[in-house]
Specification:
Elements lengths: L3 E10 L4 E9 L2 E4 L10 E4 L4 E4 L1 E6 L12 H10 L2 E6 L10 H14 L3 E4 L1 E2 L5 H7 L10 E4 L12 H10 L4 E4 L3 H13 L8 H4 L2 H17 L4 E3 L5 H8 L9 E5 L1 H5 L5 H4 L12 H13 L4 E2 L8 H4 L16 H10 L5 H15 L16 E11 L18 E11 L2 E5 L2 E2 L16 H4 L8
Parallel strand pairs: 1-4, 1-5, 6-7, 7-8, 9-10, 10-11, 11-12, 12-13, 13-14
Antiparallel strand pairs: 1-2, 2-3, 5-15, 15-16, 16-17, 17-18
The structure holds (4S)-2,6-dioxohexahydropyrimidine-4-carboxylic acid.
The site of (4S)-2,6-dioxohexahydropyrimidine-4-carboxylic acid has 11 residues, from loops.
Length: about 450
């Protein structure tokens, strides 16, 4: 690895502005964001006409390793990240075995050390009986975790915790930040029973079974738990206008405890896409109406939602071909979320500074990551260079994710990453993607107190 790299002449997306400057990287960190163009370096990258962004931080991926590696593994998933400009990811516990003990977390970290091309962190999963393990996870040296994931609605894997007493216990007795999948299980089951009684269901019924009420009921319940227990809480994959309204009332001015995110499938697809995509548009929470999709964009713009994350959830095409409801829920997105969002910038839906706040700085601060999310002196040199005018069509054949398909196959997008660095090392350039385990374990400093304690949308000093 070159010790000193000069990235010269890019439009650099800084926390508050975008400006043309020269970024000097030294020993894996950003040495200075305004180096003289003539500074001595081992490598100089001419970035004239390109934009330099902080590497994306994706706080919700399912990489299936260990146990379900025919769908994805930590090498294939992290390589897809590298090609998509995602330099850090947080992975979910619904693997086999589930990440519900400190030992399982340590084992996953060990696999990651051998395979991950980008930086990694892993959630601890809650069960109906592992509070002691969740407590241990915050005390055991070397097995750092961003927080606790609760499936308050069932999804892929068998990790449901929806019993009120158990939920109260998790919120009362643990100290790590909590995040949850919010779909109300009893609403989902009642909807399913009603629809199945009327005849065979199809994939279009997925949005009637996992309907708006299921999402809102669970999110309301989770917010109530977080507030009563004064526990930091992050709502995953918000899918409805109603939740955006609910979250708007507690963002910022509220108690500083709650953050929330939107995913690309809910931002770029809606129920009208079932006809075209069938089970390739099946995920949990389900797709909603076009009006919900637009409400999510407004929620990001007005601060009710703080970040964008993928919920990258690969399943093979063969698995997806099973007739509904046997078709599994989930879509891949880590390598396309940046082009999708750059295309949204191109169409005027948001700015590059929004993108960096929602996809780098925001998630890094929500989860108390050290040295991540910004192009600023002394931050880690996790960077992505993008060409905002490059136009290309998404094709299944080009996907690096092991599942080899995308719901955006055939879509033309403007704005693509051209080079990615992790800790100052190039992991993606042109059509080359690294295989070496360059990624590092992310360090979490939970004493920082999360997004609101570090300045909220303005991002502090
Ligand atoms: O659609 C989904 N798929 N939603 C989830 O919450 C889980 C995920 C998976 O792991 O397949």
């Amino acid at each position: 690895m070159p010790r000193r790299t000069l990235i010269r002449g890019a439009q650099v997306v800084l926390p508050r502005e975008t400006t043309r400057t020269n970024v000097l990287v030294e020993a894996g960190r950003i040495a200075t964001v305004d180096a003289p163009a003539s500074v001595r370096a081992d490598e100089t990258v001419d970035a004239d006409g390109l934009h330099l962004l902080p590497g994306l931080v994706d706080d919700q991926v399912h990489f299936r390793d260990p146990g379900l590696t025919h769908k994805e593994d930590l090498r294939s998933g992290s390589r897809a990240c590298a090609a998509g400009g995602v330099t850090s990811f947080l992975e979910m516990p619904n693997t086999v075995p589930q990440t519900v003990t400190v030992d399982a977390l340590a084992a996953k970290l060990e696999i990651a050390r051998r395979k991950c091309v980008v930086n990694y962190g892993f959630y601890m999963g809650a069960t109906t009986g592992n509070v002691a393990e969740l407590q241990n996870a915050s005390r055991t040296a070397g097995v750092a975790t961003p927080g606790i994931k609760v499936f308050m609605g069932s999804s892929t894997g068998d990790m449901l915790v929806d019993d009120q007493e158990r939920l109260e216990e998790i919120f009362a007795l643990t100290s790590l930040p909590i995040t949850a999948h919010c779909e109300d299980e009893s609403t989902v089951r009642a909807n399913q029973a009603r629809l199945e009684a009327a005849g065979p269901t199809t994939v279009r019924d997925h949005s009637r079974i996992r309907d708006r009420r299921a999402a809102v009921t669970a999110t309301r319940r989770a917010l109530d738990l977080a507030r009563r227990h004064k526990h930091r809480f992050h709502v995953l994959h918000v899918s409805t206008a109603d939740e955006v309204a609910l979250l708007g009332s507690c963002a910022g001015a509220g108690d500083g405890l709650v953050t929330a995110e939107a995913c690309p499938h809910h931002l770029f697809l809606d129920v009208s896409d079932y006809g075209r995509l069938g089970a390739l548009a099946q995920m949990n929470p389900s797709l909603k109406e076009a009006s919900d999709r637009e409400a999510l964009w407004r929620g990001l713009k007005n601060g009710a939602l703080q970040i964008v994350a993928t919920d990258h959830a690969p399943h093979t095409l063969e698995e997806k071909r099973a007739p509904y409801p046997a078709s599994p829920s989930g879509v891949p997105a880590v390598e396309l979320v940046l082009p999708l969002m750059l295309d949204a910038v191109h169409r005027g839906k948001c700015t590059l500074n929004d993108l960096a706040a929602w996809m780098s700085d925001g998630p890094a601060r929500i989860w108390d990551m050290v040295g991540k999310g910004r192009i600023e002196d002394r931050y880690d040199a996790d960077l992505v260079l993008v060409d905002t005018s490059m136009e290309r069509e998404v094709r299944n054949e080009d996907q690096i994710t092991k599942c080899g398909w995308s719901p955006w196959h055939g879509t033309r997008l403007t704005g693509w990453p051209v080079r990615t660095w992790v800790g100052g090392r190039t992991v993606f350039a042109g059509d080359w993607v690294a295989r070496e385990p360059v990624g590092r374990q992310i360090v979490f400093d939970h004493a920082r107190g999360g997004y609101w304690a570090t300045g909220g949308p303005s991002g502090g000093p």
